[in-house]
Design brief:
Layout lengths: L4 E10 L9 E9 L4 E6 L3 H7 L5 H16 L12 H8 L7 E3 L3 E5 L2 H12 L4
Antiparallel strand pairs: 1-2, 1-4, 1-5, 2-3
Length: 129
Amino acid sequence: MSARDAFDYAVIRVVPRIEREEFVNAGVILHAPARDFLAARVALAEDRLRALAPDADIEEVRLALALYPLVAAGDPRGGPIAALPRSERFHWLVAPRSTIVQPSAVHSGLSDDPQAALEKLVRALVLPP
């Protein structure tokens, strides 16, 4: 049996009207420092967002969400933040913000396979049942 290591994660949320505090989960960011792992996976349920906010600019939301995996991976297409060290990228990705796309609080877990943990969290917290 492999040793399990700690990881931290946050859910990426789309909050179309901040004053209403309603949101749609649209992805997960997972950081496992002991495994040199940082990744983000997004999956926007556009029908849920449209039901919550019929006037939401879906294309703008898609573009904002697309940056999360790029920054997490250190891909230059993610802009200057993507060039930061892995830990700094994670802290930037999960920093509180009051924009339409924002992270949840950071939570912790244990896993011997961070990629599998990321996929499990996406299935449990983001994808429709």
